[in-house]
Amino acid sequence: MGAVWDTIIFKPVLNILIVLCSVLFSNFGLTIIALTIIIRGCMYPLTIRQLRSTKAMESLQPKLTELRQKYAKDKQKLAQEQMRMYKESGVSPIGCLVPMLIQMPIWIALYQSIMMALAVAPEGLLKLSSYLYSWPVVYSMLPLDSQFLWLNLAVRDGLLILPILVGITMWVQQKMVAPANPDPKQQSMSGMMLWMMPLLFTFLSLQFPSGLALYWVTSNIISIVIQYFVTGWGGLLKSAAGKPTGRDKSYKKRIAQVEAGSSEYADVGADIVEPSSTQGEGLDNGESRDERQDRGRGYPESLRGIRRQSRRSKSHRPKRR
Amino acid sequence: MRVKNNKIKLSKILLLTVMFLVVTVGLATSGCMGGLQPVGWSGGVVADETLFLGSMEGRLVVVSVADGTRQWSEPITTTSSGGFGCAASSAAVPIYGTLVVAGDLVYISGYNGKIYAFDSTSLQKRWVYPAEGNLQTIVGGAVVALDKVYFGCSDGKVYALRADTGVEAWEPFQTGDKIWSTPVIDGEAVYISSFDKKVYALDAATGEKKWESPEAGGVIASPPFVYNDTVYFGSFDRYLYAVDATDGQLKWKSEVEAGNWFWAKPVVYNNTVYAPCLDGKVYILDAESGHELIDAIDLGSSVSSSPVLVDDSIIIVSEEGKVYSIKDNQKKELKDLETKVYSPLCASNGVVYVHTQEDEALYALNAQTGAEVWQVSLASE
């Protein structure tokens, strides 16, 4: 198993890392950032699929809660109804897990490669020699220079800047994906997760070489960017959405115009939130935006078709609010 | 309701446990938690029927070559900060360099960036350099000549200390990168290789640079070998080089490109260069021209341990613990120790001593037949 892992995943990632370092002026810090971006770029379709599945699952949460309450005493029936609902809505409960599981080996290989390429101790450098391809550039590049900005990538960041950045970026990313769940118990669990993961990774960053922390920060920032283009700021802005922004106001104006039947704005219907949910000043009424958009019940009948059509043609466009 | 709350609590605990396991297993399987930590692989040296070497417990071990009886010094330790939330702890200092004995002192280079001089009889410390603080890591060993101790350090400097007191004999000489190799003394010159891809020749008395070799294609981690006014060394670019010992001019670069780095020190004997490589082969070249005399001899696994010359045979051990003798360009397997070996070999009076890595032990083997003379564990308890 170890040999298969090394041959198929670990060695390619490690050797590409070293070659990339030779291209990027022998700067290992830049190399970590670049390789993280490249690998996350290759994983983009899977990441998008995972995010969409997660989002779809979130939209089903209210119905799931209803079902749980309705069939609290009949587990078999509950399971049947849940499966029926998943089938009807075209959502797979493991849809968000499969892409993540596929990505896991690559993340681990990238992490392994960073640790191995640093090869601080003689044992590490000696071991590294057995994982190299017979490319001249690979042999002559090693050992890599571990200095980057104020960091020695082979040891932990004594200034604590990188561990703090790991915590902050992970918190932001977690907050963006945090589901707005009507179930207070589930909400409490996701609230705990929101803090647990950043704290755990901050702690790990304090223990491990800063090269690894640099990888985590880069990876988190990429996740934030991807997340933004898929779901917007998500839960990050919801908690601070008491006051309407200028953007919110302009959308309300446009919604009012759509409601008034202005054909000029028909095309933007796909991205406009449900009018009924924006009657108050704040956008946060305890219901996720995605839910509101997906139902589309508040639109005049004439606009629903346009909305569906527009959604099909612009499914990858960032959400505007 | 109570049952429901318990279920939620249980699911929280499960979720956290799974998260913790995923992170821990991910990190553990990646090899960062073990296997890459420095433990050392000190070579031995024989003086007055006694073998001195550094153990992985950070101790000076003295072994009688007659029967293998052992004595240990107190361990050399260093204090590590312990990291966030952990208390500082004391850890054994890894020792990579081969020990050196001169007069009544034994010199040890510690990976913690210190040089120690121990009394060879009482095994008590005489002096430590630097007395306060630490240099960067020291991977190579020290050599003693002209009443001085010479060594290279990961800070890229070559140091010379007075052998009796440990006081600096001359201003350290700065090379362009780390030094992991042991210096070589020949006549009045110190030869040392550096990660800056060059070999330097310094005046042993003053530390002044005599010359520096042309840059090789890769890092030079192994010590050079000086023979007939020529300095031989292997590089990470997978080539062997020979430079003139008087002016550092390149004599030749091997035509053959090896399959991996040259890590171990080459041996030159009878006008022939024997260079073991991490690709598991021993390259045999003409010392004058660098031409390959015969096809490289395949030993089956990497060789990182420096070989030793015993009579007219080159004794080599592979990482997998197979001990070979090469004589008249023919290999002969002497012994399979079935354990990892990284330490340089040491020989005296027709016996070769092998310091093994796993279950740290010392083997004494007859260099002609491979018969085991004795075997002892180096663990102090």
Mean pLDDT of chain B: 90
Give the low-pLDDT segments of chain A.
240-248, 262-321
The SSE string of chain A, one letter per element, is HHHHHHHEEHHHHHHH
Percentage of residues assigned to helices of chain B: under 10%
Q: Can you list the strand order of the major beta sheet of chain B?
A: 1-2-3-4
Mean pLDDT of chain A: 72
Q: What value does the Rg of chain A take, in angstroms?
A: 24 Å
Strand content of chain B: 35-45%
CATH architecture of the domain at 299-381 in chain B: Beta Barrel
Biggest sheet of chain B, in brief?
A: 4 strands, antiparallel
Largest interface: chains, residues each: A-B, 39 and 43 residues
Report the end-to-end length of chain B measured between terminal Cα atoms.
59 Å
Shape assignment of chain B: globular
Rg of chain B, please? 23 Å
**Total domain units of chain A:** 2
Total strand segments of chain A? 2
Give the count of helical stretches of chain A: 14
User: Oligomeric form of this entry?
Assistant: heterodimer
Number of helices of chain B: 1
Give descriptors for this structure:
heterodimer, A: 321 residues, mainly alpha, two-stranded antiparallel sheet, 14 helices, 67% helix, elongated, disordered C terminus, B: 381 residues, mainly beta, Lipocalin, four-stranded antiparallel β-sheet, 1 helix, 41% strand
Plain-language structure description:
The complex is a heterodimer of chains A (about 325) and B (about 375). By secondary structure, chain A is an all-alpha fold. Helix content of chain A is about 65%, strand content about 0%. Chain A has 14 helices and two strands. A two-stranded antiparallel ribbon of chain A has the order 1-2. In chain A, β1 and β2 form a beta hairpin. Chain A is elongated and about 65 Å long. Chain A starts with a helix and ends in an 8-residue tail after the last helix. The C terminus of chain A is likely disordered. Helices cover about 5% and strands about 40% of the residues of chain B. The interface between A and B is large, with 39 and 43 residues.
